[in-house]
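Task 17 of the worksheet. Students: predict the tertiary structure of the chain below and write it out as structure tokens. Keep your answer in the requested format; marks are given for formatting as well as content.
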Amino acid sequence: MAVPKRKMSRANTRARRSQWKASVPQLVKTVENGRVTYSLPHQAKVVTDAAGNALFLEYKGRKVADA
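Model answer:
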């Protein structure tokens, strides 16, 4: 494991940490039966019935898992 040779100052530590930024996820807009839904790309989506109960997970039109 790497061990620093000298103690890093508080100012340098905070300056390094301040450069970290969260990125906004790229959402994909889909329209099904007049409903607009946004989802993350390349992830399975939950298929629900009319009452809103989860039935199964679907990816690229295929059932991949039970919910």
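Marker's comment: The chain is about 10% helix and 35% strand. Residues 25-66 form one domain.
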